[in-house]
Specification:
Blueprint lengths: L4 E4 L1 H10 L4 E7 L5 H12 L4 E4 L1 H7 L7 E5 L7 H9 L6 E6 L4 H13 L4 E5 L8 H7 L8 E4 L2 H10 L3 E5 L16 E6 L7 H5 L3 E3 L12 H16 L1
Parallel strand pairs: 2-3, 5-6, 5-9, 6-7, 8-9, 8-10
Antiparallel strand pairs: 1-4, 2-4
């Protein structure tokens, strides 16, 4: 079973069982008394006929690189979205696209939190470069609380080229930058739009910045000059949600 991925955390495992039960090969759950959420998860696993193994908590600790909440699933590798599939995804939309572009977010906790916000905001897809970015590892899936299984995550080989393709498809690209003259709240986010967030600390790369139709900032009233990328992502996405409603 060395080719299997490990997903841990109640929400992440539950999302897999509910959405992709055929991918789950085995559920590993802590031995002893289970809390309500663990018991509900065990019942769902048994209903779909999953193999269940009980392990002591310290054995689970050794298998999960993070807080596992007493549950771990061994699953077949996820089918990542390809660059080519983005065009098909945009063609099938009923309304204007809302895309999130993460330029070099390397911290898995930040990526997981961004995916969670993206799912809550109804984002069409999350796009990130293949190099110098976090991938969908177990920590990301745990932090995302199931969103990693729900939101298309597309890693591209050339982000600048992909942004130009989006523009050719009628999507406006708006990059978040602290030095921008206009506020995000002044931007019209009701049409097809891609919000571009830079890496932790460094911000967007030069080529990415040059591919933006507009740059916008988030007004900061205090002493802090910038927000954590996952926090800023949530603020930006829900400004788009507010405008679209």
């Amino acid at each position: 079973m060395s080719d299997l991925e490990r997903v841990f955390g109640v929400h992440a495992v539950q999302a897999l069982i509910e959405r992709y039960p055929k991918r789950v090969k085995r559920l590993i759950i802590q031995s002893g008394r289970l809390n309500e959420r663990q018991q509900r998860l065990l019942s769902e696993a048994e209903q779909v006929g999953l193999s269940v193994v009980r392990l002591a908590v310290d054995e689970l600790d050794a298998q999960a690189d993070g807080v596992h909440q007493g549950v771990l699933a061994e699953v077949s590798p996820s089918q990542l979205w390809s660059e080519e599939m983005l065009g098909h995804l945009l063609d099938r939309l009923d309304g204007p696209a809302l895309l999130l572009v993460l330029d070099g977010v390397t911290d898995p906790h930040n990526l997981g939190a961004c995916l969670r916000s993206a799912d809550a905001a109804g984002v069409t897809a999350v796009i990130a470069p293949r190099d110098n970015s976090a991938s969908l590892n177990p920590t990301v899936r745990k932090v995302a609380c199931g969103a990693a299984e729900a939101v298309p995550f597309i890693q591209v080989t050339n982000l600048a080229r992909s942004l130009r393709q989006l523009q050719e498809a009628g999507v406006w690209t708006i990059g978040l930058a602290g030095e921008a003259e206009q506020s995000l709240y002044e931007c019209d986010l009701r049409g097809p739009v891609a919000l571009i967030m830079g890496a932790e600390g460094a911000g967007m790369r030069r080529l990415t910045r040059e591919c933006c139709d507009y740059l916008a900032n988030l007004p900061m009233a205090g002493e802090v000059s910038s927000l954590n990328v996952s926090v800023a992502t949530g603020v930006c996405l829900f400004e788009a949600v507010r405008q679209r409603r």
